User: Which sequence fits this backbone?
């Protein structure tokens, strides 16, 4: 299933996306089935999830409203957002921006490099990223986020996939200036709204794992990243296991699996995002997430 | 005022601490005045805060229950927990554990070193810190936390103190092993429950600023840190201003102002905390926060 959160006058309700015969995506309202649950709570509720699956299989897509006419919220609002640095082979070797002494990437890293983004970063799939006056060196990172489906604490790697609800797209927007002001990247990663998420969660019954997916990232129509998830260093099951040894993961929490290396041309230039630019992340089976970056003069 | 959150069968309600003539602390229930607000919400509500102040001034302390008989929750449950590294002069020069290439401390640092702890770290003032099997190198850091009282976004330094509700004590518990596995300290700082907070918030009408306060930290009865807040590098107003340029701070969010250097004897040995050890943080005007560390065999 592809699951979304729909924003109706500020209330966020679960929905499912179904394809109509005309090729358009349509919205199946799951608010009745969810009975007040958020999408994150629904992901943790086997009965509600089974009911949603039944509703999707019986839906007459052609009669449903078009997804384009709906305002989407972030599919989940994570309490905890954990992100991977240097988690694609080739990222370190070719692209050392933000690289800190002591860090290693690819197969050489003895442990995953994990950092935190704060909850204020999460944005809906159609929300622009508003770059505040203080952020003058804004950059994008196209990533696949793992969405936790049930509370995970001290989970063995062999059991870990049962705690994963599905996958979605995430733009780990960063201000490189703030990121590099000291050893800890925290502030450059945690600017308000610097984490567009969505558009939907593809559940693990539809996409069991991240093997062999193609990712493309476009900036202003130019492809700057083209990679396969097979270049990922630490996989999903290991990450859930590893992180859950110290942090109890909750339904709706996300683990973003890191960004692949950029193309050689892109690595040679670094231009901060300017007012009006767009970035699109596209991954096989996960759809695409397009974000517009805008400047604010507000202080 | 000294404000607490009281845990009554899992419901957390605001209260105030008042001193009785016999020298004991007593609890004034503010649940009626709060009318369902959490303490964080009450801090943002001028009317409710004024009513609380009036109730405290009119309270007959001798008739109130003893604070010792009450179960305290963390005074606030922050969405965002921002912490300072190397924010006391002397910390860097004498104590470079966890120091990362490129970091500077004291007056030499061009910017504050800021890191994030996740929300799962927050513990109540009497809760033990449970050290999971994976955490084998657990350490303490006694700090003063600034509690945000109203939503702060792009706040000028001159206006910043109006956004501060008060101060409390915070133990920035860390697993040094996990902290030093890669450049980003995130996981070593964010273990479940590795952030005891409290016991109460002293509001800014009682403690307007952090100037000239004495801090002592004891481990097992031995003083390991003795410092004055006058050695703090970046002050409260600057920090609120600086951080609010990129992160909108909410009522109940905390900024922990960093740990002073340890005594010379303590710096020469580093012994991870063992099962049953206690650490007490004590600051003029802010009371004390004693935490017991326990091992769990649970996996």
Assistant:
């Amino acid at each position: 299933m592809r699951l979304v959160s729909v924003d109706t006058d500020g209330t966020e309700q679960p929905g499912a996306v179904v394809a109509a015969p005309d090729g358009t995506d349509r919205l199946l309202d799951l608010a009745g089935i969810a009975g007040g649950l958020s999408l994150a709570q629904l992901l943790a509720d086997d009965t509600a999830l089974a009911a949603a699956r039944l509703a999707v299989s019986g839906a007459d897509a052609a009669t449903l409203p078009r997804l384009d006419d709906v305002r989407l919220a972030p599919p989940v609002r994570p309490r905890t957002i954990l992100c991977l640095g240097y988690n694609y082979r080739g990222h370190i070797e070719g692209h050392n921006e933000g690289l800190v002494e002591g860090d290693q990437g690819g197969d050489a890293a003895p442990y995953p490099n994990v950092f935190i983004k704060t909850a204020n970063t999460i944005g809906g799939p159609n929300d622009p990223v508003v770059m505040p006056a203080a952020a003058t060196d804004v950059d994008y990172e196209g990533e696949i986020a793992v969405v936790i489906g049930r509370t995970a604490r001290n989970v063995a790697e062999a059991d870990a996939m049962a705690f994963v609800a599905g996958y979605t797209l995430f733009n780990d927007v960063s201000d490189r200036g703030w990121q590099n002001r000291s050893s800890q990247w925290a502030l450059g990663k945690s600017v308000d709204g610097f984490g567009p998420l969505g558009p939907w969660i593809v559940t693990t019954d539809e996409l069991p794992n991240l093997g062999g997916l193609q990712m493309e990232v476009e900036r202003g129509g130019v492809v700057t990243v083209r990679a396969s998830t097979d270049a990922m260093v630490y996989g999903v099951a290991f990450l859930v296991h590893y992180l859950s040894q110290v942090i109890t993961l909750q339904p709706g929490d996300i683990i973003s699996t890191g960004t692949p290396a950029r193309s050689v041309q892109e690595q040679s230039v670094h231009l901060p995002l300017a007012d009006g630019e767009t970035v699109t992340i596209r991954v096989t089976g996960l759809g695409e997430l397009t974000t517009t970056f805008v400047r604010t003069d507000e202080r």
